[in-house]
Input
Amino acid sequence: MVVLATAWGWACGPTPPLREQGPFIPKSEAVVLARVPSVERDARARERAALRRALAQRAGQLDVALQLARMDVEWSQSQGDLRYLGRAQAALSPWWDSATPPPAVRMLRASIHHARREFAEARADLDAVVKEDPGNVKAWLLRAEVLGVQGEHAEAARSCAWLTALTSPLSIAVCEARVRSLSGHSRKAHAQLAEVLGRTGRSLESRTRALATLAESAALAGDAGKAERYFLRALALNPQDTTARAAFADLLLDARRPREAAVVVMDHTHDDRLLLRRVLAENALNSSRAPALTRELALRFEARRLRGDGAQAREEARFALHVEKAPEKALRLARSAWATQREPWDVRLLIEAALAAGQPEAARPALDFLRDTGCEDPWLVRWAERVRSETP
Output
């Protein structure tokens, strides 16, 4: 806890216990229920509002639509709020369903599909982008990410290789390290990336990405102490990196340090992924905050289902397994996630849920995947050994 407070200057006092009570009805319109950022004070919100008005007055303005969609996608990424992806799609609606949209629209559409974990659609757009523009660095990087998440590591590595003459050695090393970590070779990924970062890591953005990747690879390789140091450095440089923040909270939860995990995500629970980590931490602490936070997350998952949004099946599987104590539901959700993605957490969840449900044979796809990739990461190897020991 001291390390966290020193690194980020966090301080948290005691929180009064939550009590069940009726709805609060203000006695006057003057009562302030909540304070939200004012559009007048927020330059980005003001700009987005102006762009939206311009599109409403005259649809089909490509330059305006692209600018607005980019801002909405960036805001969604920084805040972990997928609703802004719908707004970005709305801005691009005149071209959204086109088989041959303008290249910039296709790239944004791929980014939106990727964020929603609609990987087949994202890959189709990215294949078209790199065919039309082989020098598009962002497209190759995103294509490598999509393929890596889907478990197509050889093709993902080829996407990284295309970057050789297009971008910095550090960006290429981050791309390659990410693919190696996803395929279960995090020690090699870490060694290579650390060496390149030591030689070439100058720009803030490149260093931030590299440090977050090093943290995740160290965690997968079983070096929790090194991973924690990298996470602290990465988040000190970019506190808005919700992916790194979630991974750091996972590291702390696995180390049975739920109080610190709760602090890591405490002020960021507008993002459902981070609220999940807060719920897991507060339930582990058996805190008075746990019931209300648990209900809030359950309502968010229900709202997503009503919208037909299955982007967070993995997170809901963890919630079902560890909070609701519903292993069969967790196994169903873990299988749903496995249908489209093969990240280390998908491997672990499929195994955990299968074991908890008393169906170790259901983990067979994960075991086959680990065998086929030659996985060396102790974090995943231990889970595979547990299944084998419990399978008749």
Residues 80 and 271 are 5 Å apart (CA to CA). The longest helix spans residues 62-79. The chain has 22 helices and no strands.
